[in-house]
Amino acid sequence: MDSNNKLNKAKEKSKIAHLKSDYFLQKVFEDIKDGRTLRIIKYNKNIKKRVNININNYKEYSEKFSSIEIEIKPKENAIGRFINILKGTEKYYHIYFDNNISEEIKRNKIKEEDKVSKINVIIAHQVINIFKLFFKCPCIESIYFKKFYRTNFRSMKKMFCLCPELKEINFKSFKTDNIESMASMFDACTSLQKLNLSNFNTSNVKDMFNMFHGCSSLKEINFSSFNTSNAKNMSRMFSGCSLLKEINLSNFNTKNVTNMSYMFSGCASLEVLNLYHFNTNNVVDMSYMFNACARLKKINLSNFNNINVKNMKGMFRGCTFLQELGLSSFYTDNVLDLSFMFYGCSSLKELDLSNFDTKNVDNMNSMFFGCSSIKKIELSNFDTQNVTYMSEMFYRCSSLKDLNLSNFNTSSVSCMRSMFSKSQLELKLKIREQCETFYDEAFI
After folding, report:
1. CB 46 within 8 A of CB 67
2. Are 416 and 384 in contact, with CB atoms under 8 Å apart?
């Protein structure tokens, strides 16, 4: 019996040592859940003390010390969950990713005046993946990368995703030379107000999907060094950045981008947007690209080449202040969906779409819904032979008195419900005279 106890104790001791050296961090979390011991280096004001503590009694220990240092050597990273376990202590965390931290501890010993919740991160060269590094860390307010000269990382996907209290990130020593994905990197960082990314090398980044999505407090971003020549996905890149008034994208190279859907969706404060240099030759999806950009009064897209675009659904939906829109060079030969395209553009007074080739379009539902100020729409070249849906297409176009739809072919249309509802009686009568193929449901 005694020999069994000794053996069990020896195994447990071995486990503790193993945890500290070469277990995956994921395994550490599993052991924490089981109430096992994790080695933690702790400091008080005057002495350095190394102790083993049980995570379940962590608060009892933490109150005796002014600050804490946590020593971890991960092969996988899930630091967010680890910090969340300790967040109730309201202490200062100084997290090391390194094999030998003794010298770093001497140089960077935590000072008494350092702020609570601030994190300094020192990352060792052997760490290959920083994917989700601070994912779901609701307790962090500030991050300072004291040493980050490594260039072997490939992905920063979701690195700070869902850090709602994060207000400051210092990227002074950041190296991003080999990064290929920054998707959702700052997604839902709702307290971030300013980001200086001037030292970022993004020449190898292919995925920028959701990069700043939901950064609803962000007022300023410095993109002066951004190289986007290899970027393919910019979908939702600035979606929900509701306080941004201006974005300088003059150095953006978009020649390889295929997806721009929802790119500026929800940028409700955006007043200036210059996309004259944008190369859209390879873009396939532009759906909801400017959705709910409510303060934009002018968008000049005369340089856009849309030869490969298939989806323009909701592209300008909810642009309620929009008064001027240059679409003279729009190539729509391959577009399948134009539904909701100008939905709610209540300040637009005129639209010339005579250059639109719509022979492949299937859906025109609510295309001009709520364009209450529009007085003229030029649709003389519209080819509607393949259109199936036209319901609410001109709903509440209450200022429109004249509309030439004599060229409309409605043979394939299965639904045109409320197509002209809430429009002027004068317009309805003219449409009935022009074409007898519109169902009664279109005028109800």
Report:
1. no
2. no
State the Cα–Cα distance between residues 203 and 158, nearest whole angstrom: 19
The dihedral built from the CA positions of residue 137, 139, 142 and 146, taken in this order, carries a sign that is negative
Alpha helices in 22-101 (DSSP H): 25-33, 58-62, 79-86
pLDDT band at 138 (very low <50, low <70, confident <90, very high): low
Enter the tokens of residue 62: 């933490």
Taking 3-state DSSP, the helix, strand and coil percentages for the chain, each rounded to the nearest 5, stand at: 15, 15, 70
Angle at 67 between CA 65 and CA 70, to 5 degrees: 110
Amino acid at 97: F
Q: Does the pLDDT at position 319 exceed 70?
A: yes
CA atoms within 13 A on the CB side of 409: 13
Strand 37-43, strand 48-54: pairing: antiparallel
Q: What's the CA dihedral at 104, 108, 112, 117 to 10 degrees? A: -80
Domain boundaries of the chain, sorted by first residue: 343-444
CA atoms within 13 A on the CB side of 284: 5
Phi-psi map region of 247: left, alpha, beta (phi>0 left; psi -120 to 50 alpha): beta
Q: For residue 428, what is the enclosing H or E element?
A: helix 425-434
Do the Cβ atoms of 398 and 371 come closer than 8 Å?
no
Termini Cα distance of the chain: 88
**Can you tell me the distance from the alpha carbon of 444 to that of 440, in angstroms, rounded to the nearest whole number?**
7
Rg (CA), the chain: 29
Side by side, the strands of the sheet bearing 93-97 are 48-54, 37-43, 67-72, 93-97, 118-123, 142-147, 168-170
d(CA 221, CA 270) in angstroms, rounded, equals: 13
Q: Find the angle CA(368)-CA(371)-CA(374) to the nearest 5 degrees.
A: 110
What are the strands, taking DSSP E only, across 168-312?
168-170, 194-196, 220-222, 298-300
8 Å CB contact between 289 and 317 = no
Report the percentage of the chain scoring pLDDT > 70.
Answer: 68
What 3 state SS string does 229-240 have? Answer: CCCCECCCCCCC
Calculate the CA 406 to chain-centre distance.
Answer: 44
- Quote the tokens at residue 176: 């991003």
Among residues 108, 117, 101, which one has the least CA distance to residue 146? 108
Amino acid at 298: K
Q: What DSSP designation does 321 have?
A: T
pLDDT digits (tens, 9 = 90+) for 104-131: 434 444 343 444 344 445 444 444 557 7
Overall size of the chain counted in residues: 444
Q: How far apart are CA 178 and CA 204, in angstroms?
A: 6
